[in-house]
Known about the structure:
Residues 1-24 are annotated as: Disordered. A hairpin with a 2-residue loop joins β1 and β2. The strands form 2 sheets. Strands 1, 2, 3, 4, 5, 6 and 7 form a 7-stranded antiparallel β-sheet that branches. A two-stranded antiparallel sheet has the order 8-9. The chain has helices at residues 2-37, 74-90, 107-117, 123-142, 159-171, 182-194, and strands at 40-44, 47-52, 55-64, 96-102, 145-154, 177-179, 204-205, 212-215, 218-221. The protein has 6 helices and 9 strands. Helices cover 49% and strands 23% of the residues. The radius of gyration is 25 Å and the shape is extended. It has 225 residues and is α+β, with helices and mostly antiparallel strands. It has 3 domains: 1-33; 45-103 and 144-210, no CATH class; 107-141, no CATH class. α3 (107-117) runs antiparallel to α4.
Amino acid sequence: MMKKKTEKIQKNNQKSFKKEKKNIKKRAKKLATTLNWLDVESIEHNECIINDSGTKYIVRGIKIHPLNIHMLNVDDNYRVIESLAIAFNKINFKFYWKFVYQQPNLDEQNHNLIRILKNEEDKSILNLGDMFLNYHEWYINNFKEISFYFIVMENEKMIDKVYTDLKRFMTETRLMISPMTNDDFRNMIAYDFDNPAIDEYYFSVLKEIERFEFGNNKIGLEEKK
């Protein structure tokens, strides 16, 4: 009886070992594939250097600051969307877009709060300030905020022109923008590795953008001819 139990345990152990070995191979293959997608050579000077089998590309981008269009009236809402549609119509080069969920950055708010409390003597106000600081810490640890980027990737000869055009077109919209920083690129890469559904390509390409048409106070896509 003991011999049969021992043999059964050994068989189960062998099955578990084979299963774990198979899972390890899958993870190793997935990691290798992911690293093949990610050809980042360096991140510096607010740009990302890509080395694709010896061909060097430079990635730059702009960050779109949040705007709640539901807080605008109908006319302002239309003008915001219209300005973005016009900008898309002007873009005649390939560009990329990226959504990134990341930890909220409340450094500026905390710095201002600490500065105000520095010379405060009223204990009730100091306690209130501590409450806000603790709330900020709780918020940072429990919530993610979304960042949205437009990105261009070109060789060294073309990157300045394309990036300048991207900034110019997006500056003409009614959206607030700022250049992507080294931290933005790092957060973008970190989010890809935290995200179980990594895209087929490292950057999501916005392909074959249809032109926008305006009429009857509405914005729509032109029909294919």
